[in-house]
Amino acid sequence: MNEKELFAKNLKAARKKAGLSQTALAEKISYSSKAISKWESGVSIPPSEILPLIARILDTDLNSLFDFREEAGYFLGIDGGGTKTKFMLKNQNGDIINELTLGASNPTSVGIDACCELFYNGIKEICKDIPLGKVSIFIGAAGCGITTNKNAVYQRLTPLNPSSLTVSSDAENIIAAGLKNENGVIAIMGTGSVIFVSIDSIHKRIGGYGHFIGDTFSASEIGRACLEAVFSELDKSGEKTVLTKKITDEKGTDVSKILNDMYNEGKTYMAALSHYVFEAAKEGDSVAKQIIDNNINKFAKLLLSALSLLPKDKKYPIVLAGGITHYKDFFLEKLKKKITAENLEDIKVLDEEPVEGAVLMAMKSKENKNA
Fold first, then answer.
1. 8, containing H or E segment
2. Measured between alpha carbons, how far is 168 from 181 in angstroms, rounded to an integer?
3. Which of 8, 101, 210, 255 is deepest in the core (most CB within 10 A)?
4. 82-106 burial string, b = 16+ CB within 10 Å, else e?
């Protein structure tokens, strides 16, 4: 579709939306209906001096009249995080055209300017010679669940004029990758944790209230419990545990320094200790095993609550995602035994990268646009 044909398409759509016939529009701008017909047939484009008047009459603007976005034939998913950002471009047949990995893009940590620059450069690089007017883009990024960040990213990238552009949180990528836009439960078990129940594309959030209240079965919660156990042993009020040696070997025996670092760095500090709990459990440490079992029991209750929100006439999957799932051998079977709801299909670990979910959301954005 050339420039004249695209303009013709936009003009015709704007005229019809305004409820005007070709003759009515012609009268308002003192041109003939034959001229309007030529413009809408792609034969010619109006003289530049008349364009502002046409835009004003049709209650639109020049950017919209010359918005040469086409039907999306390519779908770009972007999964932005605190350490890396993945881009995946697919065609309408689902074939991967290109992939790209860049650095951190969370605007709350790198700043909105650096975040937008990374997205902008990444989009230009991965699309290369593909016209952006043919690309539907979905960005699911950490920090973009915050409205101000989301709006800022959208506004900065709109001048690229993709076929469609959506900006949201990185949780959307995981939900889409895990549930494929179907109903079910997704549990994200990373530095923090949160559960989403997806019902007809509406997501109900359960848990995930932050490490002060307790992100059940997250790396930060397991690390917090680890420190609690270590301090209890050092105080002679708790059981002996190999966790104490593991932590003091790394952090030293100065409890005040450990506490100072913990409060300064917050959940990131605690999350970095979680692997010691799984190591200790593997070695047979009873305290480490109890930390894991306590989290299994609490998480099972949250998952049962999530399932209770779904209709009982069908079975639904629970999909687990996030860094803690790397230790699934320590908890998955136990968790399955705790959840016996009639509408549970299965509990499984996400086996796709979140960026795949972002691509699915880009495809869904096209469907919504055409609906």
1. helix 3-17
2. 16
3. 8
4. beebbbbbbeeeeeeeeebebebbb
| CB atoms near residue 355 (< 10 Å) | 25
Report residue 345 CA to chain centroid gap: 25
Between CA 180 and CA 126 the distance in angstroms is 24
The answer to pTM > 0.85 is no
**Is the separation of the CB atoms in 229 and 290 below 8 Å?**
no
Q: Where are the alpha helices (DSSP H) in 47-196?
A: 51-57, 62-65, 107-110, 112-127, 147-157, 171-179
Chain segment 218-238, per-residue pLDDT in tens: 999 999 999 999 999 999 999
Nearest CA to 123 out of 74, 78, 190, 59 is that of 78
Reference 306, options 351, 358, 347, 357; nearest CA is 347
Amino acid, res. 62: L
Say what the pLDDT of residue 2 is.
Answer: 66
DSSP 199: E
How many other C-beta atoms are found inside a 10 Å radius of the C-beta of residue 340? 9
Beta strand 316-321 with 184-189 is parallel
